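User: Let's play a game. I give you a shape written as tokens, and you guess the letters that built it. Ready? Here's round one.
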């Protein structure tokens, strides 16, 4: 038999325990409710959120369309990349991500025309792979370049640690003087590029630099070199019979503008990597991962 004092203490302890159990149960209900109410996004929701940030979007004409899958698909995760390669698709599937945002074409031509080469077996295999994995691919090229600052260029400058030398709208970077060779090596190190190609005197001192990631085409590359007269023009990809031959002749005529060719994919990949940082605050419930498509070439 408990004394009145002990009985009162026992009752108080029991009431506290019961209250704690009730609070824990209520907490579990709230947490469960939170999980049930966690915001979901469709592919179109994500696209709309992105386009709100792009000047003059949506564009009447653009290659930035869905290449596989559908706008109504619920997004389980996002992968950003340069090219939606077979390897990138497989890695996205392993991550449980069903939405790939790619900067460049998925089906080997600018408009992703699957009949560009009629009856292509590789196109059909890739379409089947995407369908089997339930992955939607959306190209994000025109819009990302239209963003201010240009999303690709900003990402490249950030990774190269050159943002402090850039003013939006001015194609010229004014860097501390350095040799052409040291600039090439800096880009290899910071951008993670195995090899770059150079036309020019490796000992030439350079400070006026024009950076053109990607494949702007010979006319634009040569035109900018003619107009800006940089010490070095840095590009992603060239038509060798256009830009490369122009620079070779220009140097033999005594011009001092050199050329560094990084490679198309690796020259723009940092811009798609930066997209993760840019997009995540806008869709915080989604996991966003960058998977580099890397250089398709090996050097022997």
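Assistant: Ready! My guess for every position:
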């Amino acid at each position: 038999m408990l004394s009145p004092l002990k009985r009162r203490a026992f009752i108080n302890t029991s009431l506290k325990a019961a209250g704690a159990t009730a609070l824990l149960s209520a907490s579990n209900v709230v947490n469960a409710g939170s999980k049930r109410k966690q915001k979901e996004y469709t592919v179109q929701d994500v696209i709309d959120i992105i386009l709100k940030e792009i000047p003059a979007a949506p564009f009447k004409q653009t290659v930035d369309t869905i290449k596989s899958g559908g706008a109504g698909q619920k997004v389980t995760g996002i992968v950003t990349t340069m090219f939606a390669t077979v390897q990138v698709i497989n890695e996205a599937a392993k991550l449980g991500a069903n939405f790939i945002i790619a900067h460049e074409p998925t089906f080997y031509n600018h408009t992703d025309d699957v009949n560009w080469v009629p009856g292509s077996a590789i196109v059909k295999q890739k379409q089947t792979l995407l369908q089997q994995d339930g992955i939607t691919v959306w190209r994000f090229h025109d819009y990302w370049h239209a963003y201010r600052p240009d999303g690709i260029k900003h990402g490249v400058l950030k990774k190269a640690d050159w943002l402090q030398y850039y003013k939006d709208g001015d194609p010229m970077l004014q860097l501390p003087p350095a040799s052409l060779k040291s600039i090439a090596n800096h880009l290899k190190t910071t951008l993670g590029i195995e090899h770059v190609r150079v036309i020019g005197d490796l000992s030439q001192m350079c400070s006026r630099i024009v950076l053109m990631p990607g494949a702007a085409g010979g006319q634009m590359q040569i035109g900018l070199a003619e107009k800006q007269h940089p010490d070095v023009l840095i590009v992603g990809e060239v038509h060798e019979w256009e830009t490369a031959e122009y620079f070779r002749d220009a140097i033999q005529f005594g011009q001092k503008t050199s050329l560094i060719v990084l490679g198309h994919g690796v020259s723009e990949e940092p811009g798609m990597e930066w997209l993760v940082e840019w997009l995540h605050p806008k869709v915080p419930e989604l996991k966003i991962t960058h998977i580099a498509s890397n250089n398709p070439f090996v050097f022997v």
